[in-house]
Amino acid sequence: MYEALRQAFPETNFIEAADLFYRVRAIKEPQEVEMIRRAAAALCKGIEAAVKAVRPGVSELEILAEAEYAMLKAGSNGLPFCPQVVSGERTILTHPCASNKKIQPGKVVVIHLGATYEGYCAKMCRTVAVGNISHAQEEVYNLLLKAQSEAIAALRPGVQAWEVDAAAREVIKTAGYEKYYLDVIGYGVGLRQSEFYPIIGKGRTEVIEVGMVIDLLLPTIYRRDIGGPRITDVIYIGKNGNEILTSYPRELIKV
């Protein structure tokens, strides 16, 4: 596409316009928020179905199949990204997808799904402990949950993106895990599952505004022996406070 445009319009420069569009789309109209809210409602049904399907001997793909079916029945128009139902050592991968791997007892299962409604996206990640997992992994999940809660509390109009990141990062740093942690913890959400304005991360200067919809918290602790657990939610910044659109219990799920 770029080569065709360059040949048809031989100007000396082409200017990247994606950032401009992301900035315009960052502030959602009320009807857009309602579409994301509906996608989130279908998504919650998918997470619920996935959790019910988790048990030893079932494959990651079988769990995903139950989740996707439930979301479609609940009104989702389809998946906005390659969904992630991963277990055991595969949870430490940055962008894993569901596989034929069987669920094993004593392991963590990470369920990261998305749903759409009329083109708008919602996404959510939850962690399931199958039987008794290690104390260290349970501590990591609770640490991430605390970091996410601090970030959500800091997510308010007028603050810069780095301040939201710093609220979560301080929790991770205090626990001694900052070097195993990513520099970006969230993005805008709308017509895409990850829109590049605002980006919530270290050193980011975007200003949070009323009407934005943002997902928090993306990373795990990338340390092979204890990492893997994750949590992600979509949050709407309203005039009178934040609303977590993905309204599903956030505690570690045990089956």
UniProtKB/TrEMBL annotation:
Domain of life of the organism encoding this protein: Bacteria
Span of domain Peptidase M24: 34-237
A Pfam family this chain is assigned to: Peptidase_M24
Entries under InterPro entries matching the protein: Creatinase/aminopeptidase-like (IPR036005), Pept_M24 (IPR000994), Peptidase_M24B (IPR050659)
TM regions (residue ranges): none
The protein, known as: Xaa-Pro peptidase family protein
Source species of the chain: Caldicellulosiruptor naganoensis
Species lineage: Bacteria, Bacillati, Bacillota, Bacillota incertae sedis, Caldicellulosiruptorales
